[in-house]
Amino acid sequence: MRNGYVASIDQGTASSRCMVFDRAGRIVSVAQKEHRHHFPRPGWVEHDPKEIWGNVLTVVRDALDNAELSVHDIVALGIANQRETTVLWHRDTGEPVSNAVTWQDTRTDHLCRELAGDVGQHRFRDRCGLPLATYFSGPKIRWLLDRIPGLEERAEASQVLFGTMDSWLIWRFTGRHVTDVTNASRTMLMSLDATDWDDDLLDVMGVPRAMLPEIRPSAEIYGESGEPLAGLPIASALGDQHAALVGQTCFSPGEAKCTYGTGSFLVLNTGDQPVRSRNGLLTTLGYKLGAEPATYALEGSMAVTGALVQWFRDNIGLIGSAPEIETLARTVEDNGGCYFVPAFSGLFAPHWRSDARGVIAGLTGYIQKGHLARAILEATAWQTREVVESMNTDYGVPLAALRVDGGMTANNLLMQFLADVLDLPVVRPIVAETVSLGAAYAAGLAQGFWPDVQSLRTNWHKAAEWSPAMDARTREKGYRKWRKAVERTTDWVDDDD
Amino acid sequence: MPGHIQSIERAAAILRLLSGRTRRLGVGELAGELELPKGTVHGLLRTLQRVGFVEQDAESGKYQLGAALLHMGSSYLDGNELRTRALNWSDALAARSEESVRIGTLHENQVLVVHHVFRPDRSHQALEVGALLPVHATALGKALLAHHQYLAGELHRTGLRAYTGATITDLYRLRRELQDVRERGWAFEREELIEDISALACPIDDRRGLTVGAIGISGSSERLCDDGAPRDELVSYVREAARSVSRELGAIPW
Lengths: 497, 254
Prior knowledge:
heterodimer; A: alpha+beta; seven-stranded mixed β-sheet; 16 helices; 23 strands; 33% helix; globular; B: alpha+beta; Beta-Lactamase; two-stranded antiparallel ribbon; 10 helices
């Protein structure tokens, strides 16, 4: 087998990044470029698809140059991307119809409530695995079709095309109009069971099938890039959290990873059958490797985790940098009875209560800033416990260990507390960049650079492990208090707010 | 040679004691440690408090380092901050060298391990974050000592304990070795703490060029060394990692 490298693009919310990996899964080179955010109105968040395409080409070039590699040294290029962000473009000119409507954009709030009607937020849950929420692409497409004159006719004639970021990039690279199952599963337009566009859902949302990409596996050679990276095979596409599942080599049913960032995403491999959640989780695709059956997943999203530490730093000002929260938290032995539920814009998984707002519970004269710092870190661990409990109930087999990645894994106090309250080992892998690694793994599998998932498992190494060390009584008392604090967040928002 | 200003020396001693402890200290404890009258220590603390270099806990009346001092951005660097900024580079070092990685800072004349990355193999390993290592018998310690020479003087007082037959117990020899470390930029530990285990380390500098920590690898001498000397490519991996972390902290690129 000839030597070589696999590259991947992580087209994220804040920036685009290219990483080059060797056969052992080690990082050889990195390049990154941020793009602009456009806020035309309150609640609207847009990206310029052409700027992003330009940045992607730049970071691939830079990553190759940094390691003194040429396109011929790269056997395959994979793509991981911010999920649900919606791009429409003209087939003949390749010009975007408008800026991309990002997943953070809440303009479809009213439309989602209209679609929910009397049945409620979970109207399409059985079919597509998702509740009606502003994140997902289907309603964003409908919103654009409604607002731009003549667009619907052109969409019906396949003259205007839809894609999430993966589709947009693959189309620019190869001229093919495709997406992968994981990205398609975030549109609310795909049937979970058929892993194909669902006519009923298309009908209800009013989205013409003619504008949609073909749904393909996550690992497959979609085509070769044209200039300026001529000949480079484009060989994978996955939503970022799905890529992280692959990067963490969670290839067996029952294995789960959680990525701790501004928000945090826990994803559990549930095997080749979708598991419908009765406990507020999302059902989604994990990945699909070539001709193998699709792997499904349950996902629990926590909107405010690292964001709470940032809030404490920027809005309260008791710490100068995010890592200092650990120093402050270590000035005290425990939380002093204080609990912080960061329901800043309502409660998400597994509660889904938009009428909730944040609460600091258990305040007494004894509480000082160190206790607050502890409560803030513990909030991330307790939220994870809630999601894990929902997963255990939905999936039926309790989790045996949690693989973690993301910036917050640098916080030892949090990671130990997480192991304590989950009563599970918490393990961090040696390559923290699991999103990029997962996209590279999928691309390398498609190209035969790695023979099978077993060979990827041997690349996975523990960088650190935290073992549970809390007695059951302390743990359960803490969880009981947390749940009482959560109860106190609801029914806060009134009609006249 | 100009005369020493005793009160500044004493104030510095207080700050050093406070920076070396994870808990707050009371006037009595400080006075005891410094062998000074309580009243003298109290006066020094009040002045330090006024300039923001120490803070007094309202409830217990005990003292800790003040925010002003912590934010001056001098040689003090929060260990948690250092770990966070070094995370990617220390992972890369462990992956490339296939050895375990530790980052240490100085703490009461010892090395405090603030970060630990497991050796990437299937062996069972336990996190050693928070462990204290002897400065004179470790590569991390020698990389730090080389740039904090005043501490070598303090070691004279405490003495150099022998951990193995190879531990340097003679202060003169240690000073000579630290001179070598400064000249070549990296420190070597040849089975000086544990039999058959060797280690390599380089200092991490901040934006003012002050050494705020050290990063290194350790493992069996068989893997780390050729003919008793550390393998060249391992030395270059550790140097590159230290450079990358220093750059991350804003040190002038070099």
